[in-house]
Amino acid sequence: MAEIILTKRNGEVSMDKSFEYLCSLLRNGVYTVKIVRKTEPRTISQNSLMWMWYKCMEEHTGTPKEDFHDYYKAKFLSRDVAVGNKWYRVVGSTTELNTLQMTNYLNKVQADAATEFGIMLPLPADRHYQSFIDEYRTK
Fold first, then answer.
1. How far apart are CA 102 and CA 76, in angstroms?
2. What is the mean pLDDT of the chain?
3. Whole-angstrom Cα distance, residue 78 to residue 124?
4. Which residues pair with 91 in a beta bridge?
5. Which end of the chain is less enclosed by CB atoms within 10 A, N or C?
6. Ranges of each domain in the chain
7. What CA–CA distances, in Å, run from 52 to 4, 41, 64, 68, 129?
8. CA 86, 91, 96, 97: dihedral to nearest 10 degrees?
9. What CA–CA distance (Å, rounded) separates 41 from 100?
10. How far apart are CA 135 and CA 56, in angstroms?
11. 8 Å CB contact between 39 and 99
12. pLDDT at res. 104
């Protein structure tokens, strides 16, 4: 499959390759052109925040941070799939999430930690976030 990265900034569209070049790579036939917004994978800072939150929860509850990771993946990233005539529950991975999906996942973890465990997990915009970072970054 041939691809072009199309970027729109300030109303101007640019492409990383010419459309004519892309067409020259195609065999004869009928094609559909579909433009899909590109997403970026979750960021390292999102992943770091998630693990700091899990460490904080571990210290408050005694439950290992890895168990919290598995718990929240099962709670928020699982789905049912049909294989043959049987249904199975499969659990997704945070590594497969894009930045928006990871933000939504973290928001769910933060809300659940507050309601289920009484643990307030800070976001980078929060007043005492740097203190939280200093406490949990290296643990």
1. 11
2. 92
3. 27
4. 78
5. N
6. 44-136
7. 38, 19, 12, 11, 11
8. 110
9. 9
10. 9
11. yes
12. 96
18 DSSP 8-state letter: -
The DSSP line for 66-81 is HHHHHHHHHHHSEEEE
Residue in this structure with the two tokens 């199975």, named with its chain if needed: 88
**Which of the four pLDDT bands, split at 50, 70 and 90, describes residue 46?**
very high
Find out whether 78 and 70 touch, Cβ atoms under 8 Å: no
Burial of 113: CB neighbours in 10 Å, binned 0-12, 13-18, 19+: buried
pTM exceeding the 0.90 threshold for the entire prediction: no
Amino acid residing at 58: E
Return the number of other C-beta atoms located less than 10 Å from residue 9's C-beta: 7
Q: CATH top-level class for 44-136?
A: mainly alpha
Is the CB of residue 106 less than 8 Å from the CB of residue 50?
yes
pLDDT surpasses 90 at 37: no
